[in-house]
Amino acid sequence: MIKDQAAAFGAENNRGDAAASVPNGEEPTINPDLIRREGFANESEYRAYFATLGRDVSAPTEDHVGEPVRISGQRILESRLQELRWELEILRARLHGIRRQAATVVTENVRWADSSAHAQLGDQPWLKLAGAMAGAFVVTRGLRRLPWGTVVTTALPLAVAAMNRKLARR
To answer: In Å, how far are 12, 112, 129, 130 from 119, measured between CA atoms?
Structure first.
C-alpha cells in the first residue's frame, strides 16, 4: 500500500525540488520523501505482509532494477483529485448521518418534554401552563400600576403598630 502524499509540483512545492519541474521535458521522478506506507506500524510489518503474499519486498524484480519510477504530473494531479473526491463523498455521508442524528435528538427531546409535562400537570398540560403564564402576566401588570409610595406610606404605620402590640404582649 504505497501512496504519494502531497505531490511536489506547482505552487505547492515549497522546498524547490528538482523533481517538481524538469526543464528538458522529462517526466519527474517520485520523491522518496513523499511516499508513505499506510496501514502498517513499522517496516517489519510491511515486509511480513508481502512475505505472506509470497513476494520478497527487499529483492526487486530483474526487469526493473535500477530504473527510477516515473509518474507524470498529470497522473499525480488526477490521483490527488480522485482522493479529494473520495474524501468529499465520505464527508457528505458523515454530514448526512449527523443531520439524521440531530433530527432524532430534537424529536426525542420534544417527546420527553411532552411526557414530562403530562406527568407533572395531567391532562392538557400546555393549556394549564398557558393559563399560569397569563395569570402571572395579569398580576404583574396589576402590581406595576399600584401607587407603591402611597401603599407603603399607609401600610408602614399599621405594620409598626402590629409589631408594638406583639412586643407589648411579651
So the answer is: 63, 10, 13, 17
